[in-house]
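thought: fold this chain, then report.
action: predict
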Amino acid sequence: MVIVRLLLLFTLGEYGIFTVPEAILTIFGYWGIFKKCGAKPWEALVPFRRTYTLARCAGREPEGRVLTAADVINTVLQGLILIVPPGNTGFPVALMAAQFAVVLWMLIYWIRVFDGLALAFNRRKIWVVLWVFFQGICSAVWGWSKRFAPRWLISDFADVEEKYFDGSARGLDEGLTVDIRERIVRSFFGKKYLLRDIHMYIKPGRMVLLLGGSGAGKTTFLNAVNGYEKADAQIVLNGSNVYKEYKKMKYKVGFVPQQDLMRGSDTVLRTLTDAAALRLPMDFDQKERRERVDEVMKMFGLRPVQDSLVDKLSGGQRKRLSIAMEFISNPSLFILDEPDSGLDGVMARELMNRLRRIADQGKIVIVITHTPDRVIDLFDDVIVLAKDANRTGRLAFYGTIEEARKFFGRERMEEIVMCVCREEEGGEGRADDYISEYVDYQRS
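observation:
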């Protein structure tokens, strides 16, 4: 009997937890849904694969990968519970506890997939609840009723004919040249493109705004540029290859994350002194380090609070200290992820003014901020990243602020972001139009 149940479990895959008739009804419904969405209907017969394909039909491919992995783990746990000897009580309890945790994890991702299906089939959110409790019936109705038709096909998200620049930015002995051919991650389901076809040249002395909706690849782009996560790319800063000469170039690139990493029990002076010891090259002697610390404190207005504990600083002072820690090495490229988050308009502008003065020293400053319009007059250029139909981060625009306004036909930067965001994210869903148009713009 146990052998029969195991065979059923691994034949039906994730639906081994249901009764056989309900599992068959669900698979039957999936066949119809896959056919409607342009997927291969026979994938409904393949355990675990059908979960991933359903997520793709819903436009939720990333959730599908996670959910499929969780399905496999859950099915293995079920199989182990079936074959544990009846006299052994402790081990099954542990397995059941683990399975319960996995099921809760799966439920979260199932809800995301069902929400995507409701959007794909233009149905009300109440259907998400119905799918959770009556998956077999819902799948059969959606798969075979002519009243349920999807708004898009899987081909709208994958294997789309895209325009690519397939060129390179001009490399000079000064400034930053970025040539990212692709940044991929590999998984059980093959490779996934995170970034693709991003080329630009940034002159020294420019303060650059980095824009893009959620998941557009802003952080991935910055990590590729600073060498933290290498891509299939060539990043050249002032004539030196960041990847090939990383030991030397890591002192030339400063990166300030959104969350600071400072000990609250240290003073401002001690914090900067420690930063100097870590970030300045070994050939700096103690006197030169003290002079650099003093210079940076003066630049960021931290001298009056040099003996204060970090925990006692105001929000603006903490931000300035966090930036000063990275600037201690006098980098040629300075990257900041939301340095003005949590600051009011006055404090944010005062902070951005300091960054403007850094750029005016001949540095390149790249900034992510979610409130760009209040300080847009301080920026020279803007980079706009967007997700294409394959959900890959692409370059939708790079140029001056005025050129961006003309290209997108929008005055405010926040309106530009809305142009390239997907409709389900509250945007206009025109990312592919602008990406394609910008490819032509680069070639002209």
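thought: worth noting. Residues 1-17 have pLDDT under 50 and may be disordered.
final: tokens above.
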